């Protein structure tokens, strides 16, 4: 039975580790938060006393950590030293492209196989094992990571060399942020013009204004019963995480010299929303800011 060292079993990592257990793997879980480890143990994982202990002798090492600084420190201070030479290293966190590249290159210099494999899909998809993985790294490393990722997701796509998984993730989420703002402002304008929201949805969702933001996460209650708008924007994809991804996109655009005016506008609006207490609400709640009432 393959052994997996899983570091970072929080909201996302907890569900992902549980799916690896379900797939028949032995999963050693480590997290700085004892409650997160306890939850992982309740799903069949074994508690590890440190990141090093979780990784030592494992066939695969998976990290699901908050940001680039946590990932760089975890690999450079503990995991590279603890990893067996034939282990596959998989970072599923959403982090900046530059750090993903540098950690991937450091792994290669040590003769270790590593991929960056950020996910699309929130905690519900992590629990259900239906995440989409965008993977950066050498083809041979991708081939070794793929079976583990398949156990946690519905789609696993090789995006290119180290860092390209993160590049795909932030480019995708920059579209998502900008289309949500555009969709929300269109519903506000429709409202002010006296056009019924359901009627507008019925037309636009079948016309050229259609997007995922409209048909899956419609920002007004009613047209899409499963969208967070129907439960006061609770759950879903928190505005704070959208803001994080937009900031990563803006940093990457600055480094690459790309012009991203719509992404920059979306970032400014999500920052304003966060500064006014909107961080915890689903990102479709930006419609409230656009209506003129700033309270989330
Ligand atoms: P989270 O805060 O719930 O989990 C992160 C966990 O990492 C925490 O339990 C924390 O204690 C632990 N941790 C931090 N530093 C550590 C260290 N050095 N060693 C061990 N454990 C450490 O966050 P999350 O929602 O699970 O998100 C994890 C990553 O997934 C982030 O990069 C996030 O952007 C990305 N992501 C989240 C979602 C979502 O909907 N929550 C969706 C897609 C991607």
Key features of this structure:
296 residues, alpha/beta, Rossmann fold, N-(1-d-carboxylethyl)-l-norvaline Dehydrogenase, domain 2, 2 domains, 6-stranded parallel β-sheet, 3-stranded mixed β-sheet, 13 helices, 9 strands, 14% strand, elongated, binds nicotinamide-adenine-dinucleotide
Summarize the structure.
The chain is α/β, with parallel strands linked by helices. The protein is 52% helix and 14% strand. The chain has helices at 11-22, 34-42, 51-55, 68-82, 97-109, 123-128, 139-150, 164-193, 197-204, 212-215, 239-256, 261-275, 286-291; strands at residues 3-7, 26-30, 46-47, 60-63, 88-91, 113-116, 119-120, 131-136, 153-160.
Structure description:
By secondary structure, the protein is an alpha/beta fold. The chain has 2 domains: 3-160, Rossmann fold; 167-290, N-(1-d-carboxylethyl)-l-norvaline Dehydrogenase, domain 2. Helix content is 52%, strand content 14%. The protein contains 13 helices and 9 strands. It has helices at residues 11-22, 34-42, 51-55, 68-82, 97-109, 123-128, 139-150, 164-193, 197-204, 212-215, 239-256, 261-275, 286-291; strands at 3-7, 26-30, 46-47, 60-63, 88-91, 113-116, 119-120, 131-136, 153-160. It has a 6-stranded parallel β-sheet with strand order 3-2-1-4-5-6, sandwiched between helices. The protein has a 3-stranded mixed β-sheet with strand order 7-8-9. Strand 8 (131-136), helix 7 (139-150) and strand 9 form a beta-alpha-beta unit. Helix 8 (164-193) packs across helix 12. The longest helix is centred in the middle third of the chain and has 30 residues, at 164-193. It is elongated and about 65 Å long. The termini are far apart. The relative contact order is 0.09. The model has no long low-confidence stretch (mean pLDDT 96). The structure holds nicotinamide-adenine-dinucleotide.
């Amino acid at each position: 039975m393959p052994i997996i060292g899983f570091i970072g079993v929080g909201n996302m990592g907890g569900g992902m580790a549980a799916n690896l257990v379900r797939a028949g793997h032995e999963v050693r879980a480590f997290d700085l938060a004892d409650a997160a480890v306890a939850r992982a143990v309740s799903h069949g994982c074994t508690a590890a006393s440190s990141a090093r202990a979780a990784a030592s002798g494992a066939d695969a090492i998976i990290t699901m950590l908050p940001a680039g600084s946590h990932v760089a420190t975890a690999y450079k201070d503990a995991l590279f030293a603890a990893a067996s030479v034939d282990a596959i290293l998989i970072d599923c966190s959403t982090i900046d492209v530059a750090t993903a590249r540098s950690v991937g290159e450091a792994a290669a210099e040590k003769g270790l196989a590593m991929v960056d494999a950020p996910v699309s899909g929130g905690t519900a998809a992590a629990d259900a094992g239906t995440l989409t993985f965008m993977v950066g790294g050498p083809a041979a490393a991708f081939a070794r990571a793929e079976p583990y990722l398949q156990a946690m997701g519905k789609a696993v796509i090789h995006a290119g060399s180290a860092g390209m998984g993160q590049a795909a993730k932030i480019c995708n989420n920059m579209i998502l942020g900008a289309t949500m703002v555009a969709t929300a402002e269109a519903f506000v304008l429709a409202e002010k013009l006296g056009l019924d929201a359901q009627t507008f949805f019925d037309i636009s969702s079948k016309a050229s204004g259609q997007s995922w933001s409209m048909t899956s996460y419609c920002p007004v209650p009613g047209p899409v019963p499963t969208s967070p708008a129907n439960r006061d924007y609770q759950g879903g994809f928190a505005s704070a995480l959208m803001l994080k991804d937009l900031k990563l996109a803006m940093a990457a655009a600055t480094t690459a010299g790309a012009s991203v005016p719509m992404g920059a506008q979306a970032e400014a609006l999500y920052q304003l929303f966060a500064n006014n207490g909107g961080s915890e609400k689903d990102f479709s709640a930006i419609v409230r800011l656009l209506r003129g009432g700033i309270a989330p």
